[in-house]
Amino acid sequence: MFRPKLPDIPTPPVTPHQLQPPAASAGRPVAPYVGVGAGAVAAVVVVGIVLTALLAAVAVSAVSMAIAAVVLRSLVNGAHKR
Q: What is the distance between the alpha carbons of residues 58 and 52, in angstroms, rounded to a whole number?
């Protein structure tokens, strides 16, 4: 009762001249854009790997310097106590 009733839409008959294959696009080729996209993705991946390696190197250096600072501090404090 509260639902609207939509009229039936008749489908037009298909004529033979409408059954033509789609025309080829006369635009730009797709292949160069795929190549540029793949190259850009590869460049981003390489840059990400390099930056991650640099970050890991900085982290390892910071940890090793912190350990060296703790060892030197303990050696200096040990020498003052004697």
A: 10
